[in-house]
Amino acid sequence: MGSLRILVGCKRVIDYAVKIRVKPDKRGVITEGVKHSLNPFDEIAIEEAVRLKEKKLAQEIVAVSIGPTACQETLRTALAMGADRAIHVEVDDKSYETLQPIHVSKILAKLAAQEKIDVVIVGKQAIDDDSNSSAQMTASLLGWPQATNASKVDISGTDATVTREVDGGLETIKCKLPLVISADLRLNEPRYATLPNIMKAKKKPIDKKKATDLGVDVEPRIEILSVEEPPKREAGTKVESVDDLLNKLKQLGRI
């Protein structure tokens, strides 16, 4: 059995299939009574950690979620997929509304140091705020190498070879452990948690901490002034022929 200790970030987000609605005061989106689930990219991160354990490269997988009590449901999903134990960093609802990637990164970095972690894996971005910055800032705070947007990970000894998705195609980099990885869509296909594993997950430990226990101040650094829905798309029109299409585009000033 390998000796790697892996920390995986697990964010609770509004489920990808839910239609998002903006609050009347335009200070955020409606979350009450809305289905939430584990961020899909974080699901990929958990799957990769479990595969590393199945390859006998990892010894322990620790899942972490930051937020209100409901985050424990998200951690149970990670535990059912194969994480060994979980840490819930409790943040009250009001502070959670203004929690930013810098706060998340500081918490992850502190936990990585406390838990003697070798590899931190997070999703490349959360599907709610799409920040794509927690992995980068966590690596910076720890002074570790980073391999972001990973589509393939190979670990041998203290070396990791990671294939990254970049604008022009694929880039392969070699890093020394300890390392921060962010998971891209094509890294793997996450497994479904089986019923026996869901039952076992109920007995796995969830350690509770507060951000203050880790010496992290979660005061907001930015203020959200307004959240707006994207403009509604106008209905299309049908045309009879290519000539009609060209005439229509000329009338609209598109050509």
Q: What name is given to the CATH topology?
A: Rossmann fold
* Mass-distribution shape: globular
Give me the count of strands.
11
Order of helices and strands: EEEHEHEHHEHEEEEHEH
Low-confidence stretches: none
Q: How much helical structure, as a percent, in the residues?
A: 25-40%
Strand content: 25-35%
Give the CATH architecture. 3-Layer(aba) Sandwich
How would a crystallographer describe the biggest sheet?
9 strands, mixed
By secondary-structure content and strand pairing, the structural class works out as alpha/beta
Average pLDDT metric? 92
Tell me the strand order in the biggest sheet.
9-8-7-10-6-1-4-5-11
Using only CA atoms, what is the Rg? 21 Å
| Number of individual domains | 1
CATH C-level class: Alpha Beta
Please report the distance between the alpha carbons of the first and last residues.
64 Å
- Helix tally equals 7
The CATH homologous superfamily: HUPs
Walk me through this protein's architecture:
With 255 residues, the protein is an alpha/beta fold. The chain has one domain (4-251): HUPs (Rossmann fold, 3-Layer(aba) Sandwich), CATH 3.40.50.620. Helix content is 28%, strand content 27%. It contains 7 helices and 11 strands. Strands 9-8-7-10-6-1-4-5-11 form a 9-stranded mixed sheet, sandwiched between helices. Strands 2-3 form a two-stranded antiparallel sheet. The radius of gyration is 21 Å and the shape is globular.
